[in-house]
Structures are given as structure tokens and as C-alpha cells.
Amino acid sequence: MAINEIHNLIIKYLNDELNDSEKDFLVNWLNNSENKAIFKKYIALNSSLNYNSQEFDYKEPLKRALEKIKSENTKKSRKTVRLTTLLKYAAILIVVVAAGFYFSKNNFNKTSTPKIVNDIKIGTDKATLTLENGTKIALEKGQVFNSENVKSDGEKIIYNSKSTDVKASEKITYNYLTIPRGGEFYIVLEDNTKVWLNSESQLKYPVAFAKGKTREVELLYGEAYFEISPSTNHNGDKFKVHTQQQTIEVFGTQFNVKAYKENEEIYTTLAEGKVKVEIDGITKMLKPSEQTTYNKTTKSINIATVDVSYETSWRTGYFSFTNKALVEVAEVLARWYNVEFHFENKALEQFKINGVVSKDQNIEYFLFTLKNIENITYKIKDNHIYIK
């Protein structure tokens, strides 16, 4: 069974919607230890629950997990919210930790479900490709573009591997891929390096890499997840990623870089392998699950261990937040939905959010959730959201 079908089964499991044959399949699938690990990670990411896959019991899908959450969180601050919106089901599980209160899918009836009347569009696959001669090509979902060395189906863009090597002495030509607010895109470079680009991002890269030279790209701004084709596949040629004030030397690995122009910090998070981060002459080696935070003003560099699945969930259909201020959450959502947030009540900017939000739902589900759990009111006018 394909991974997306497994994904849907787990969603149905969480909502107690499995039929008998699906239950039997999921139980058998979990007999494999690797599948158990996938299941446990998935539940942790998409439910924000410390769920133990070894205790799996499809007859009581959330009962014990909810009881555990309520008992563990009784003593915590009421200002912490666990918010989970499950992909494509608009099912919301929220735990307000002090009161031990939660909404489940069944709590949202016809009278309590928000009536969606806004015209805010959910983000989608779109980008602008700028060719070496300056020509700009709009790439949108459902539209096909083909040229001699590149093709796109509107969701991804793939560069063809050259049949003949580019010599080190030859001039390297560059393309730019620009992702607007409300967009995302996926690119496969000529050396088979894969890059996922988040909203409001721009990548500069060679049409083809020169043999015998370091392969180099530049994330001019924004956020990107890199899966680098290892040097062993390219005669030892190194790979470097440049951002505004740092250089990342890569050793066949996967990592995430968040470097928005308006933000004070640049974050580099290692998922697999090894990278060397160089900033202002200072070099830091990262191990998996480590993240560097570089402050562009103070020039300070910190290294911390993080949950990589939360830091990179944006590329798999979710936004994950751990103790994030609402103003920071609003910044992320503003890019994806191409909206502007206005906090009329400034005190709410620091309201803390923990949880996972699906990127495939209307933004009003998130806003309606805030209204229910903390009586935070909002108004939507065109593409402006006012938090009161």
C-alpha cells in the first residue's frame, strides 16, 4: 500500500472511522517494527500526543491518549494550547491544558462549525522561473512547461542531466526560482539534488554544474529543504549552500534552512548526515537533530537539539508550532495564505501555541479554534485579518 494510503488510514484511525477490513490491515501493518516507528512518529507529529504505538488498540482510538493528556497537563498554564488539525478532514483536536477540555471532530456540529464566507485562498504550487536570458516563466499547478534542459508539470521542475560534462573553464549560467506568498514548489537540479521551497523564497542555481568544481547554490531569501546528491556520485565535487550571511558545506545530507529577509534569525536544521556551517569566520559542525540559530544583528550563534519533524513539517503538508507566540504563528500563516494580520489587542501577540495545523484547510478553521478556546475574536476583510 502506498504511503499516502497509509496516511489516510491513520487519519481515519484517529477519527474512529476505520471499517473492519481497514482495521485488520492496519493491525497487520503494525506487526512490522519499522512500520510501528513510522506510526509513532506520525501520531506524534499530527496529533501532538505522546502516543505509544506498542499499545495500539483500534477499539479505543483516542480514549486512553486523551486521558493521559488531560492528567499530564492539569498543572500547566492555561495559556498553552495544543491544537491539531488533521489533513483533509478538517477534524480538530484541541486540549486546553488547565481545564482538561477538548474538542474532537464530533464536537463540531452544524451550529459550531465556522461558516466559511471569506475569499482567502489556500496556498498551492506556483513559482516564477527566470531563465539565463532574463525570460520569466510562470509555473502553476496544471500547466506544463518544457525546454531543452528543463521541464515542469506545474508542481515540480526537473533539470536534465547533461549528456556531456560541463568543463570547469566554461561559463556557468544561472536560473532563479522564485516562490511568491501563497505558493510552494519542488525542484530537482541537474545533479539530482532535490530542493523544496516554501512560500516567499528565491533560489539561485546553475543550469548545469561544472565538473571538478564545487557545486554551489544560493538561497537568496526564504526557506528551503535540501536533499543533496552526495559527492561520491560526482567525482568528489563538494556542495555548498549560501544564504545571506552564512555558507553551508554539505556532506551528502538533508537539512532545512530558514532565512527570511525580515527575520532577525537564520535557522539551519540538520535532518541527516553532516554539514559545516560557516558564519563570519566561525565554523560549526552539526549532527542530526541539531539546529544553529544565527542572529544577524548581534552576530551570535547558538546550537540546540530540536525535533526535526516539527521544523520541517511544512514540506509535508503541515505547520508545526512548539511554544510559539501567536504573532510568530501569524507570520507563517500570512505567507501561506497571502494575508496580513493586524493585532488590535497587542497582548495577544504573545499568546502561546503548541500543535500542528494542516496547510490544506481554510484559515478560518484556525481562527475559529482560537475563538472557542480563549475567546479571541477576529474579523476578516478582504485579505486582512484583525485579531481582537
The neighbouring-strand order within the major sheet is: 4-9-12-13-11-10
CATH topology of the domain at 124-306: Jelly Rolls
Q: Over the alpha carbons, how many angstroms does the gyration radius reach?
A: 22 Å
Uncertain segments are: 45-111
Number of helices: 7
Structural class based on helices, strands and sheet pairing = alpha+beta
Classified by CATH, the class of the domain at 124-306 is Mainly Beta
CATH architecture of the domain at 124-306: Sandwich
Give the rounded overall mean pLDDT.
79
Spell out the key features of this protein.
Jelly Rolls; 37% strand; five-stranded mixed beta sheet; 388 residues; 19% helix; alpha+beta
If you had to describe this structure to a student in words, what would you say it looks like?
By secondary structure, the chain is an alpha+beta fold. It has a domain at 124-306: Jelly Rolls. The chain is 19% helix and 37% strand. The chain contains 7 helices and 26 strands. It has a 6-stranded mixed barrel with strand order 4-9-12-13-11-10. It has a 5-stranded mixed sheet with strand order 3-2-1-24-22, sandwiched between helices. A 3-stranded mixed sheet has the order 23-26-25, covered by helices on one side. The chain starts with a helix and ends with a strand.
